[in-house]
Amino acid sequence: MTTSSALRLFPALAFLALAGCDTSDQQVDSVPQETCTAPSLEPLANQTATLGDTVVVPATATPCGKVTFDYAWSLDSAPVDSSLDVSSLNITDPANMYFTPDVVGDYVVSLYLIDDQGNKSSTELAVITVGSGNDKPVADCGNNKTAIVGERVDLDGSASKDPEGAELTYQWTLSSHPDCSSLGSGDVFNGDQQLASAVPDCAGTYVVSLVVSDGENYSEPDYCSIDVASDNAAPVADAGQTTELSPCTPPDFHLDGWGSYDPDGDSLSYAWTVLSKPGGSTGDFADDPNQAAPYFHWDVPGDYTFQLQVHDGTQFSAPDVVTYTFVDPTLNSRPVSNAGDDQTIDNEPDCATASYTWTCDDCPSDKVTLDGSASVDEVDGDELDFYWTESTGELALSAPSSVTTEAVTPAFAATYNTTITKTWTVDLTVSDCSESDTDQVTVTYTCTGSY
Q1: Which of 299, 331, 363 is the last residue of a domain?
Q2: In angstroms, rounded to a whole number, what is the distance separating the alpha carbons of residues 408 and 426?
Q3: CA distance 13 to 78
Q4: Nearest to 238 by CA among 326, 314, 309
Q5: Number of domains, the chain
Q6: CATH number of 325's domain
Q7: What pLDDT, in 10s, does the model give residues 342-368?
Q8: What distance in Å separates the CA atoms of residue 323 and residue 16, rounded to the nearest whole number?
Q9: Residue 136, pLDDT score
Q10: Contact at 8 Å (CB) between 204 and 182?
């Protein structure tokens, strides 16, 4: 529908409608009558109207004497896109001509009266200015869709409407598409028609929009989604568990995406990104972020949030997000060493006598197990280092850097009917990255020569 206000001029055509005076005999008024030569017509009123409304143009006529007269209506001009002509004027009641404008713009109608003697009144004009009165049309792209890769998706805008009933034009656009798609915004078939279609080229969510126009106003866009699947199942990203890490976490921290998988068993590629980090941090990946478990160098205590997506060669996974909280190393707490229970060894070597002299076997070498597994870093949960020591050097410690170790005693001489006791003190030092604690355990060996 055009909004041109240009006028289309018509030839001087008129429809005539009969009107007249009462011709029956009447008593002549004794008052002198004003003489006239033709019927008279009051000026027509200009009007404004809204497209679609019926316009009524009333006329007030005064006859001249007892002669009859006709109404000669004409449509002198109309907007250039109008299809109306003089035949479109309804003069069933010639004193109240009406018509229905078909486009916006100015319409000029005229009227004169002519009596049966051929006398004509003045010609009066009325300009009817027709505006759109036009509300925006409403676009309706239909329902959201589901589809398979390579399958045509039909789009239906037939529920779109214009409040004034104007004919609509259509504009379909592909507003967004998955990263894997090579389609552009204009890749909608018959995108200027009420019924359109699109063919998705990879799995994911596509969004199409529809805008309609009534020739003057455009609608707001209406959006519909197309969820597209494929025979290939999407992979699953696993960025690990959100965790508060201990103050002993090293500056180069190992991210872990090894829990990611593909239901079809396809090999995966990885893409890590940093979503947020504490203010002032310049932390960054210490190696390639496109691997399952890259190192990240953190430099400021606080929360670091990472996103992982994996790709199976066809589809991207949904992103998985993990946050690691790095604690200030100066807040590290001391671990608690626990060297376990004191250990005892009892032995009775054999003794014999000859010529009233007693001789005894030696108290043999023996061993006990020392266990530091009750040591803890209760506050921070840090992994601990263990170190067992014995100051005299008489005890042999089989694994001094392990949680448990065997302590081997030396052999020594026994005396008949005499108890000899030897005691050794073993220290267990446990440490995290910066703090340590020491606990002691004793090994007591009691040996009595017997007969």
Answers
A1: 331
A2: 12
A3: 14
A4: 309
A5: 4
A6: 2.60.40.10
A7: 999 999 999 999 888 999 999 999 999
A8: 88
A9: 87
A10: no
